[in-house]
Predict the 3D structure of the following.
Amino acid sequence: MQDLNFLNDKFTPAALPEVCAPRQALLAAFHQALAGRFLYVGAPAGSGKTVSVQLWLNACGRKAVWIGLDRYDNAPSVFYKQLATGLYSTQPRNAGMRVVLSSDDFAATPVEHTVRLISAMYPDEGRYALVLDDMHLVDNREIRKALPQVLRRLPHGFVTLVLSRHEIPEELAPLAGEQAVLAPEALRFSEDEIRDYFVSLGRTLTEQEGRSAYQATEGWAIGVNAIAQSGQLEPDRARQGFARYFETQIWEKWDESLQTFCLSTAVADAFDAELAAALSGRADAPQVMEQLVRTNSFLSRLHADTYRYHHLFLDFLRERLNTGEMDTARIYKQAARYYKEKKDYSRALRFSLASGDYKGIDTYLYLFLFENHKGIVGDYADFLRTFFVADFPEKAFAALPALHILCAWYNYITSHHRDFEAHMDAVYKNLPRIALGDSKFVEYAILAYSVDHRTTMREKVRQFKSFGRYVKRFTGDGLATRIPSFSHNMPYMHRSNLDYSDLALDEDSVEKLDKTFAVLLGAEWNYIRHGIVACFSYERNRLPLALEQNSRALDAYDPGENKAEGLICLLVLQHSILWRMGSHDQASRVLARLEDVVQDSAQFFVPNMAAYRARLRLYDGDAAAAREWLGNYFVVDTEHIELFRSFQHFTTARAHMVLGDAEVALHCLELLRDFGQNVNRPVDEAEARCLLAVLHWAQGEKKQAASELEAALGILQPFDYIRPVADEGSAILPVLRRVLAEVGRPGYSGGLNRAYVNEAVLAAHAFGKVHKGVAAGLGSREKPVKLSKQQRRMLELLSQGYRQAEICALTGLGIPTIKTHTSLAYRKLGVNNAMDAVLKAREMGLIETGAEL
């Protein structure tokens, strides 16, 4: 555990500058707002958020836990580890908190661990302020949805301040009362405050000069400070913009050595004295940094030994770096070496790429791929997302074609199928060159090839030697077991990292895998070879045979040698079989064992475990289960289906159907159907189409329902799969009967077999006799239009004349998210353009009538 003094310093905010403006009215606004223990300060860069909060902290005497966020904190495991560590710094001798914080499972369930850590806090009479700075850099929906639940559990001695450049997000709104959001205007300096500030600097302004300074800066702190730093009041120049004013009035007056120091350190978003010394080559880096902080020269100490430049000043510095006046390649290489030594291989690779010298990045790429991350898939995806903030330059791929493997892997995990395909094509083309490097790159290429959705698994088996001949020696325990998860944390083997259903068409497929791809799985293959065929039997509704095969797989599983995720897949299948056979006592024992495994050694499976348990209850139309599922912090709206969350999205669609939210369910199911098509996951596509058939039938759209079900049956029939249809029970029976009647009609020319459809009808009927189904809450009756908060907000902004790009800047939402909210609002209102939507929403009293379009 970290040194106690270091922990205390790490989250302590920097001291105020030597001279700062006393702003009594602003402090009063802070005091009033924080009576409710929460304050959201949303204002643009340069408005003085940080110094204003420091002033308030200095005035109120609260101890601060100041957490400065950056784009790399945009993952639940990273964000909540930061938050938990900050809270622990207030009680660094608390053994209970230390146990939670150091748990190996923290990354798997970060929210739950943070709640446990708060529960372990000692009663404390102290008064604290938790500050989350630069919250606009955190747009992960899971983080934001969980945050109110976490903050409400803080001891009453805590208040929370969130600093951001955006409006308060919808997820945080429940924390804020009417006075708990500080608008940008509240941070502006008044003319009197500008004059008072200059008096504190030893200079008196006339009323006219104060007015001119206000007009030039609009009262924003960065502008007021720039004029004060320059020592000259030249409003006309100040109006030219911060960068130009700063350059002529301040920058050009600094000595060259200070300019070089600032430029050298500007390659990093934040830095400590050690990194600053490495980048600048100056042993006196700590003294230079402290001087800049003391003189309010656009450098802030976040905490302890971590500093960052003001955002506008950082933009200014980086623009100058782009002019080529310094050897930036040397600085980037130095940063790469620094982070390599610190074993931060992601930043090492980033800076190595930024240097433009791509010949040496193979070492960094190797370390990044093979040594960097051993976590859950969701956490790994969030981690990679922070890395892929921009496209890699083409020169990098030319110098190191193995970089295509990393890009392909990222796009596979996040299900961007077109980019995945492009990078895999480049891997195939460059395989001989990739093989000239470390043969592990070729192993990784084989692993990526194994999940290329454009080729069947049987075809991959035939082509295995074209890759394998480049590998000198395969990883002994199987490379697939070195990645975060070979099953991608999915509950069913045959629908895990790939849909393996095409293997069901070849009874010798397991033996063929034995001699090829099994080498990538190592000892895991010993039970997978039995488990995968059990999955096929289960989908074919041959439950006794599936039970026998899966029991054989469980016998082959070795807890001392095999990974927990494999056991999870086996236990989920075992329970699924027994539960559908009606062997409920046995099924309950298996489920209890499964939950013990998840709790003890596989907390990465908590979201899918919750999804699985919710699905069992949703088969009975349990509305309470639906609401409980949708309330989970990890259940968020999405415009893009990612593979490792697809099982959860199916549960979300079912929950909305049970609650009668037809529009939301429809949108989710259409995304899932397209996802299944795009990445060749036939069972996913078929399941989505089955649910769409149920949804359309319940709404009286019978022709469309039959069309969706016919397509689903056409997908499943070659595999002889029954369960994806049968599990919809009585909800899908009327659609099945209609399709069966069509197939039995004289002259039917479609591809469905009457015996196959009849078997599906019988299986759905048997399941429907026991389970109520998801369709009870749906119906074709007319329902009152109900817009979500975000849909209503979009229409309100459109009514005020804002365009999409402006709404994006104002709210912090992405363009795709804005389009989704508006399109859903259009659909609910039965219109297809903004003007009609606003007019109809006003007519129905859904938005205010005062604003103009």
User: Anything to note?
Assistant: The first strand starts at residue 38 and ends at 42. The longest helix spans residues 564-581. The beta strands are 38-42, 63-68, 128-133, 158-164, 181-182, 299-303, 306-309.
